[in-house]
Design brief:
The protein is built from three helices and eight strands, in the order H-E-E-H-E-H-E-E-E-E-E. By secondary structure, the protein is α+β, with helices and mostly antiparallel strands. The chain folds into two domains: 64 residues, GMP Synthetase, Chain A, domain 3; 59 residues, SH3 type barrels (Roll). The strands form two sheets. A five-stranded antiparallel sheet has the order 7-6-5-4-8. The protein has a three-stranded mixed sheet with strand order 1-2-3, with helices on one face. It starts with a helix and ends with a strand.
Length: 139
């Protein structure tokens, strides 16, 4: 998790305790994109409140706040556990067996790693080796 995401999570923990920051990423160096979740769903009102709490970031970045959508990012061990049985795409820091991306069913998750049943077989990947991961819609 990035220092920026940790900072944003800390700020929102007080202002919007039910909002979970799934992913905070810098896009093209000038856009700060946040994917958030809320137990009652992400509405326009929730996005507007989060944007208001992060107003000072708009001085430095173009700020985008949105729901996770169908290709929801997976960034924490509990995300992988929650979506066991679903398909995900996992992008790796370094190639493994010639591939930097694996797609398959999430079949296991612990505090240290995730196990995926991919076309090439069942693979266990430490979270530290994952650059980005998201659910695959419709699978």
């Amino acid at each position: 998790m990035s220092a920026l995401q940790t900072e944003i999570e800390a700020r929102l923990r007080e202002a919007e305790p039910e909002v979970e920051v799934l992913l905070a990423e810098l896009v093209s160096g000038s856009t700060l994109r946040l994917f958030i979740d809320h137990p009652d769903g992400v509405t326009l009102a929730v996005c507007e409140r989060v944007t208001g709490h992060l107003g000072d970031y708009r001085d430095r970045y173009s700020l985008e706040v949105s729901s996770p959508g169908q290709d929801r990012p997976l960034t924490k061990p509990q995300h992988y556990t929650r979506f066991l049985g679903r398909h995900a795409r996992v992008r790796l820091r370094d190639a493994r067996d010639g591939h930097k991306s694996l797609t398959g069913e999430l079949v296991g998750a612990s505090d240290r790693d995730v196990t995926i049943a991919a076309e090439t077989g069942v693979v266990t990947i430490p979270y530290a080796e994952i650059v980005r991961s998201n659910l695959v819609p419709g699978e």
